[in-house]
C-alpha cells in the first residue's frame, strides 16, 4: 500500500504535537526510536558479514542525533561504524550520544576524504532532515559532493540531505540514495525517490495523531520498528 506523504509544515507540526504535553514524548525518546528504526532498515538491506564498514555522516541537528543513535545500534548488530561529525554541538543531548559512540571505540572524524568514503561499504546520510532549507554550505558541501560521485550505497535518514523537502532534488543536489528511511511518515519529496528500498519507521504514533494530521500508519510486522513500503 502506498502511503500518504506530508509537506514540511505538517511534518513540523507532527513533531511539535508528539513532544507536547498531550503527546508526552521527549526528544530523547523520539531520537532513540528513530535511530533504532534507521539501524534496523540498514540491517534489513545489507549483510554485515559482506558489508561491515559503514560511514555515518552526522549533521548538527536532530537528524544527526538519529545517526548517532543508529551508529550505536549498528555496532551491536555486528556492523563496523565510523563517524564523520564535523560540527559537534555542545548541547548535552548530542554530547551524551557522542560519548556513547566513543565508549564503543567508534572512530570519529571531523574531516572527510575520498579515501574515507571509498573504504566504507555503506554510507549513512544523517546530515539534514525535513527542516533544512536553502543551499548546502561547507563543511557539508564537500561530503554531499562525495554522495554525488560515489558508487557506494547510500542510506538517507528521513530525506536525502540537501533535497528540497517538497520538490526533491535541486540544481545543486541531485544524488539518489539506494535506501530511504522515512521517519514517522514519508515527506513530500519521496515522490522523487528512485532508489532500491523505502522503509518507514515510526512504531510509536498513536492513531489519534495520524487521524488529526491525515497520514497513514502502516502495519508493522512482528516486532519490527520499520516496514518496507512500495516505491512510487
Automatic annotation (TrEMBL):
Keywords: Cytoplasm, Isomerase, Metal-binding, Mitochondrion, NAD, NADP, Nucleotide-binding, Potassium. It comes from Mucor flavus. Binds 1 potassium ion per subunit. Its main location: cytoplasm. Residues 11-217 form the YjeF N-terminal domain. Pfam families: YjeF_N. It catalyses: (6R)-NADHX = (6S)-NADHX; (6R)-NADPHX = (6S)-NADPHX. It is found in: Cytoplasm; Mitochondrion. Its cofactor is K(+). InterPro entries: YjeF_N_dom, YjeF_N_dom_sf, YJEFN_prot_NAXE-like. (6S)-NADPHX binds at residues 62-66, 129-135, 140, 158. It is an enzyme of class 5 (isomerase). K(+) binds at residues 63, 125, 161. Its EC number is 5.1.99.6. This is NAD(P)H-hydrate epimerase. Belongs to the NnrE/AIBP family.
Amino acid at each position: 500500500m502506498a502511503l500518504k506523504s506530508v509537506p514540511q509544515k505538517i511534518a513540523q507540526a507532527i513533531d511539535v504535537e508528539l513532544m507536547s504535553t498531550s503527546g508526552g514524548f521527549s526528544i530523547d525518546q523520539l531520537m532513540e526510536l528513530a535511530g533504532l528504526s534507521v539501524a534496523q532498515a540498514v540491517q534489513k538491506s545489507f549483510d554485515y558479514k559482506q558489508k561491515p564498514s559503514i560511514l555515518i555522516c552526522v549533521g548538527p541537528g536532530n537528524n544527526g542525533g538519529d545517526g548517532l543513535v543508529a551508529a550505536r545500534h549498528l555496532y551491536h548488530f555486528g556492523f563496523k561504524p565510523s563517524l564523520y561529525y564535523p560540527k559537534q554541538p555542545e548541547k548535552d543531548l548530542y554530547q551524551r550520544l557522542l560519548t556513547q559512540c566513543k565508549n564503543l571505540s567508534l572512530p570519529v572524524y571531523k574531516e572527510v576524504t575520498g579515501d574515507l568514503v571509498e573504504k566504507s561499504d555503506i554510507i549513512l546520510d544523517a546530515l539534514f532532515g525535513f527542516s533544512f532549507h536553502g543551499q548546502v554550505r561547507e563543511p557539508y558541501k564537500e561530503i554531499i559532493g562525495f554522495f554525488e560521485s560515489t558508487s557506494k550505497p547510500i542510506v538517507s535518514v528521513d530525506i536525502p540531505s540537501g533535497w528540497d523537502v517538497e520538490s526533491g532534488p535541486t540544481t545543486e543536489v541531485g544524488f539518489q540514495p539506494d535506501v530511504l528511511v522515512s521517519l514517522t511518515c514519508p515527506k513530500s519529496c519521496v515522490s522523487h525517490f528512485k532508489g532500491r528500498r523505502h522503509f518507514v519507521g515510526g512504531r510509536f504514533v498513536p492513531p489519534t495523531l495520524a487521524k488529526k494530521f491525515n497520514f497513514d500508519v502502516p502495519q508493522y510486522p512482528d516486532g519490527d520498528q520499520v516496514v518496507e513500503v512500495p516505491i512510487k
